[in-house]
Amino acid sequence: MKTLVVGVGGMTNGGKSTLSKSLHQQIPNSCIIAQDSYFKDDSVVPVDSNGFKQYDMLDALHMDTMMSEVDSWRRDPESFLRQRGLNPELITPTVDTEVFVLIVEGFLIFNYRPLNQLFDKRYFMEIPYDVCKRRRSLRVYTPPDPPGYFDGYVWPMYLKNRQEMESMVSGIVFLDGLKPKEELLATVCEDVFQEMERLREKD
């Protein structure tokens, strides 16, 4: 059996979850691990000098727990799928050439070195400031964003995290989140399927 780890990163409300779910539907023997599932309890997330909760940093996430999940998949992706009620499909004649794909989705996945070094493919969804702010304002969060949170914390942290990411990570394919969803999906699918085929042929 062969494995492929795909990272789908990007800014808040950039479309990364939508793309990841669509990829999962298109790719046999795939599953998603989403970084948003690993936030620490609100009570332990620190507050900055402006009174804003500091969610947009690695310390606000249980990254050790997330890595345990990723490692569990890497050890035995077939069992990992079964435990989550996903039935593995044999696409190729033998299990030796079967490719299992893990899609890791999140806003800081490339900033965490132990996780970043596992990716075979990296994609980053980006949208302009005004679109991002509008989309964010239409989402309902728990707890809700306080007044001024986007401009006072979310956007500055995005710029800071992105600069850090670009200084330490190479090989990222940047995707225009304003393009039609179908077009983005087709682009990434083609790339991933080519890599899967290359892995099957490789011995």
Automatic annotation (TrEMBL):
GO terms for biological process: NAD+ metabolic process; pyridine nucleotide biosynthetic process. The keyword Nucleotide-binding applies. It catalyses: beta-nicotinamide D-riboside + ATP = beta-nicotinamide D-ribonucleotide + ADP + H(+); beta-D-ribosylnicotinate + ATP = nicotinate beta-D-ribonucleotide + ADP + H(+). Gene3D superfamilies: P-loop containing nucleotide triphosphate hydrolases. GO terms for molecular function: ATP binding; metal ion binding; nicotinate riboside kinase activity; ribosylnicotinamide kinase activity. GO terms for cellular component: cytosol. Keywords: ATP-binding, Kinase, Magnesium, Metal-binding, Nucleotide-binding, Pyridine nucleotide biosynthesis, Transferase. Pathway: Cofactor biosynthesis; NAD(+) biosynthesis. Belongs to the uridine kinase family. NRK subfamily. This is Nicotinamide riboside kinase 1. It comes from Seriola lalandi dorsalis. The lineage of its organism: Eukaryota, Metazoa, Chordata, Craniata, Vertebrata.
